[in-house]
Design brief:
The protein is α+β, with helices and mostly antiparallel strands. It has helices at 2-11, 79-94, 123-142, 168-179, 181-190, 234-249, 261-267, and strands spanning 16-19, 43-50, 59-63, 73-77, 98-105, 109-116, 161-165, 198-202, 208-212, 223-225, 253-255. The longest helix is centred in the middle third of the chain and has 20 residues, at 123-142. The chain contains seven helices and eleven strands. α2 packs across α3. The protein has a domain at 29-194: Alpha-Beta Plaits (2-Layer Sandwich). Helices cover 33% and strands 22% of the residues.
Length: 274
């Protein structure tokens, strides 16, 4: 259902009516780690790294976002962006147990799908630090003598975001999400109102639906359902809360109508935003 609404919205922009309601996220933390996860063991991740604001844009993206032909979305890498593929290849030779089946270079960030197939003695963070450092060194070396600063400028902002794929379906969605990033970028640029937080959606047959939230969240690789019940015992309610909190820590997107007081109470639960 979420996918159907999302596709309908993209292909029928005239049916979208924007309400200027907007709400920023509570206590956002882009670099939050999953405190329940062992980052040394084999796992699959979607990694996002933000470009340092002082580094020039990594690419420009052009094309028709509504075309189903992927080749019609063109990503032109800038000199700074051209450094990244070679650096990833060199880094992969050192960490041969980490495979990168998909990545997307965007103007101000980089997405990497990592398949960690071996034990990492020093954890994922050190491996990612190695990649980020390698790209910084390659960029520094590419500068002319006149443009080269005395101290090497970090290529990326500090830290990175990881989203863990707990099953094959989530992993496949992460791969698709990464490959589809340039197209979504063009849609956002063309229709900035898509980023607003409350929509009235008219469907065929005269049906109307209110969508509250960023509709692009429906394209996120990790969606989870929030469902409460009056039959929950205190122990079951606490277990559900802990599960949702874990999912949020991992970058998951909660799906729920939040239509009754109990659901509303869970949505506003402070422990879900700490």
């Amino acid at each position: 259902m979420a996918s159907h609404i999302s596709d309908y919205s993209f292909n029928n922009p005239d049916n979208i009516f924007i309400n200027p309601f907007y709400r920023n996220p509570d206590h956002p933390n882009f670099n939050r780690r999953a405190n329940h996860h062992d980052y040394k063991r084999p796992a699959k991740y979607l990694i996002t790294i933000l470009k340092n604001p002082v580094i020039p844009a990594l690419c420009s993206i052009h094309g028709d976002p509504y075309s189903r032909e992927k080749r019609e979305i063109i990503t032109n890498l800038s000199p700074s962006g051209l450094i990244i593929p070679g650096a990833i290849k060199d880094w992969n030779q050192k960490f041969s147990g980490i495979y990168v089946p998909e990545y997307a270079i965007m103007p101000d960030h980089l997405h990497l799908c990592l398949d960690v197939c071996t034990h990492l003695p020093n954890g994922l963070s050190l491996a990612m630090a190695g990649l980020m450092g390698k790209i910084s060194k390659a960029y520094h070396s590419s500068l002319s003598i006149s443009d080269m600063p005395e101290k090497m400028t970090p290529f990326f902002s500090k830290g990175f975001n990881d989203r863990i794929a707990y099953n094959q379906q989530q992993w496949e969605r992460q791969l698709q999400y990464t490959a589809d990033n340039p197209r979504r970028y063009l849609i956002k640029r063309r229709h900035t109102d898509y980023l607003l937080k409350r929509w009235l959606l008219k469907m065929p047959g005269g049906h109307k639906f209110i969508l509250k939230g960023n509709i692009f969240l429906l394209r996120q690789p990790f969606l989870f359902r929030v469902k409460t019940s009056r039959r929950f015992t205190p122990t079951e309610a606490e277990a559900a809360m802990n599960e949702w909190k874990t999912n949020l820590y991992n970058g998951g997107v909660p799906i729920s109508p939040f239509y009754n007081p109990q659901n509303e109470a869970y949505k506003n639960e402070p422990r879900l935003h700490t």
